Amino acid sequence: MASAAAAGKNTKVFGLFKLPFRKPSPPSTSGSPINLPQSHSQRQSQGQNPPGPRKVSTVVRSFLPTPRRLKLDPAKRLYFPYEPGKQVRSAIKIKNTSKSLVAFKFQTTSPKSCFMRPPGAVLAPGKSIIATVFKFVEPPEKNEKPNQRNKVKFKIMSLKVKGDMEYKPELFEEQSDQIAKEQILQVVFLDVGRPTAALEKLKRQLAEADAAAEASKKPAKDADPQFIGEGLVVDEWKERRERYLAQQNAGSVESI
To answer: Which one of 133, 164, 175, 225 is least enclosed by Cβ atoms within 10 Å?
Structure first.
């Protein structure tokens, strides 16, 4: 009996392996149709517009870096000649690389020993200016290197403005949420007795800044100013005021 049962089991197992493989049945047409993804041309023929680009959320946009509006030269440093006990100058070229009017402003961690000319201005698209930075160099302590105790930094900020607007510091207070931090500049001292490429470049930029300051004192009548703000508009403003006062005085004499 046991041998017969075992033989029966072997026959059943063998019979399973001898069953032919079934071919997959075709999909039934009576059920619900399968929705295949449509192509771009099919959506257009059916009057459906393709999905537009996803908008960047405000939270994600806050983490994105603000695009630069200004190009600085030098880009990350302010070079000063190392002359202890004297007031020295540095220079930096600032160019508006955007397509709109941009105001810029200097800030420093040492306002008592440093000041800028101009401290800020409004640049037209594509225009540039060479700003001059003044700093008093403190005498070093014993065995102190020129750049060892120097921790002064400068920050340049920018602000997009509309229309013909003259520079005023209140612009950055009124639109504080639109301010972009362009760059933080580290102060580096140069040895005046050792000629270097940085020192020669500094001399050229200072010469250009002095020449632009002299030229701004005699503005041409039809000349397009390089920037709107301190410098080029000062003398013109004085002339207009003098003409206005002269007209007022003439009018008061005639009325008498």
So the answer is: 164
What would the 3-class secondary structure string for the chain be? CHHHHHHHHHHHHHHHHCCCCCCCCCCCCCCCCCCCCCCHHHHHHCCCCCCCCCCCCHHHHHHCCCCCCEEEECCCEEEEECCCCCEEEEEEEEEECCCCEEEEEEEECCCCCEEEECCEEEECCCCEEEEEEEEECCCCCCCCCCCCCCCCEEEEEEEEECCCCCCCCHHHHHCHHHCEEEEEEEEEEECCCCCCHHHHHHHHHHHHHHHHHHHHCCCCCCCCCCEEECCHHHHHHHHHHHHHHHHHHHHHHHHC
Note the pLDDT tens digit of each residue in 209-253.
Answer: 999 888 888 755 555 544 444 433 334 445 555 665 666 555 543
d(CA 127, CA 115): 23
Residue 170: Cβ within 10 Å count: 8
Instruction: For residue 11, report the phi and psi dihedrals to the nearest 5 degrees.
Output: -65, -40
Q: List pLDDT tens digits, range 111-125.
A: 888 999 999 999 999
Q: Which two tokens stand for residue 208?
A: 């250009």
Closest CA to 228 of 124, 130, 132: 124
Contacts of 230 (CB under 8 A, 6+ apart): 117, 118, 119, 120, 121, 167
Residue 74: asked if its preceding bond is cis (omega within 30°), the reply is: yes
